[in-house]
Amino acid sequence: AQPHPWLMLQEGRLTGPSSIMPQKRNPYGLNVLRLQASEAVGLTVAYLFEAHNVTAGMPDYKRDGAERAVEAARVTAARWSDVLGGLVLDEARAAAEVDADWSTTTELADTLEREADVPFRLGHHFASDLVTWGRAHGATPTTIPYEEAQRIYAEAARQTGQEQTALPLDPARFKAVLGARNMVDAAKGIGGPQPAELARMLKEAQASLAADRAWVAARRTAQAQSDAALDAAFDTLLPPR
Question: pTM for the full model?
């Protein structure tokens, strides 16, 4: 059976049928976004070159180049937001994709070091041997026998000169450590995918956006006040009607 994609664009709004393959859906949303981004970059570079060779103080380059570049950037941001809003994630399929191979074994080595004080050299050696055995026997992180993991760990411990050869993770913890959810939740780095860090970054971004909006509103108010003051000053110079 054909594997079901785990991440797709909303069909009909951001995709369209191929002109030659009926079963295919072209990612028009991404194609248009890429084209728009290229246009924004091109207009920006063109404006920089236009301004580069103009003597300081001359108004020649002050046409609509900057406005067109800024508008292209605005449209690009809007299209990017539209694409992000149109992503459809199949969580179960995504988890199955991760569980089908051994991409979480780095976290296994990290957990052994963090929770059981196992030297990283041993943990990495064990994790690597685990992957080798699993792939050779058609096993995945969700199906590998715990007893086999114990045997592989003991052998790796002996090869690295460790006295303790018992795997310091019980069956439940061993299975959990190899899960995608555990790998995400265990991440502590700045900018990581863990829910707490995402919430922090979103809060920070929202605060920055609110500050930018307040700044724009204040500048617009100041501009309107300046325009009104300028009009009033000119009115005083006009002859009485």
Answer: 0.60
